[in-house]
Amino acid sequence: MDFDKDLDARGLNCPLPILRAKKALAEMTGGQVLRVLSTDPGSVKDFAAFAKQTGNELLSSGENNKEFEFYLKRK
Amino acid sequence: MGATPEIANIDELIQRRIDEILPQKIEQALQAREASHTPSMTIIATKGTLDWAYPPFILASTAAALGWDVKIFFTFYGLNLLKKDISDLKVSPLGNPGMPMKMPFGPDWFKSINWNIPNLVQAGIPGFESVATLLMQQTIRNNGVASIAELRALSQEADVKFIACQMTVELFGFKHDDFIDGLDFAGAATFLPEAQKADVSLFM
User: Fold this and answer.
1) Taking the alpha carbons of A44, A46, A49, A54 in that order, is the dihedral positive or negative?
2) Is A15 in CB contact (< 8 Å) with chain B?
3) Which among A9, B33, B73, B83 could disulfide-bond with A38, CB atoms 3.0 to 4.6 Å apart, if both were Cys?
4) Homologous superfamily, domain B40-203
5) Are the Cβ atoms of B144 and A18 closer than 8 angstroms?
6) Cβ count near A73 (within 10 Å)
7) ipTM over 0.85
8) What is A5-70's CATH number?
């Protein structure tokens, strides 16, 4: 999937991946896509909740070998 | 004397129409209010140790990231979390049976040992708290958990409001100069109306 900005949150723990994602999204424009990589297992549910609450759409959420990958579309 | 049959009929029609329309209207109004409502949270932070420094700053920074309005009222030992220098925050395993005592280094079998050290021994060894604090700080770094200074800075960047209890400042002989910038010094009467309006209010 194409993305406009990449955020490497691997090795970071709750709540840093969400805080960094929020910051990255704030620097983007509406419709742009942010890719986030994370190793925090809690981030799967956290990013779903974050998307629902903030209105930034979670386009996809996947796992590959204990690494999690999220695509968020800026509101 | 009752109403004439015609008027009773009209009353009944109006009543039936109101019953049909009103629930829809209320539902629409509630949805509109929820859509325009900014959630808010207030926290009272009363503890000044390294372990208890985490919950207020983690929840505050996360809530701010979710778009909430957040205010934290720091009182009593919680004021320590607002000092310019917070590198000396300590954690004590003494009288804290819930705290795992594990080593953050060495082979896995060694790291998995939970050192069950009696309170009497902990209390008798000088510097036990400092060593426990160093081990905790190492564990925090090993796990990619943010430092308190980082979470506090992120909270402030995200517009979390910090209120410092003026009474405690005087009680403990602190000076305003001991604290970071951007604080409101105020009392319970300032905080309570904020807590009253908040959707979530927590005491820590």
Assistant:
1) negative
2) yes
3) A9
4) DsrEFH-like (3.40.1260.10)
5) no
6) 19
7) no
8) 3.30.110.40
Residue with tokens 């009288």: B95
Q: Which of A12, A14, A18, A22 should be substituted to probe chain B, the one whose Cβ sees the most B Cβ atoms within 10 Å?
A: A22
> Tens place of pLDDT for every residue, chain B, 204 residues?
556 777 788 989 999 999 999 999 999 999 998 888 899 999 999 999 998 999 999 999 999 999 999 999 999 999 999 999 888 888 888 778 788 888 888 888 888 888 788 877 778 888 888 888 888 888 888 888 888 998 999 899 889 999 999 999 989 999 999 999 999 999 898 999 999 999 999 999
Best residue in B36, B37, B54, B66 for a mutation probing chain A (most A CBs within 10 Å):
B66
Count Cβ neighbours within 10 Å for each residue of B163-186 and write b for 16 or more, e otherwise. Answer: bbbbebbeeeebeeeebbeebeee
CA A33/CA A43 separation, integer angstroms? 18
Classify residue B194 by burial, with Cβ atoms within 10 Å: 0-12, 13-18, 19+: middle
Interface contact B154-A14, CB threshold 8 A: no
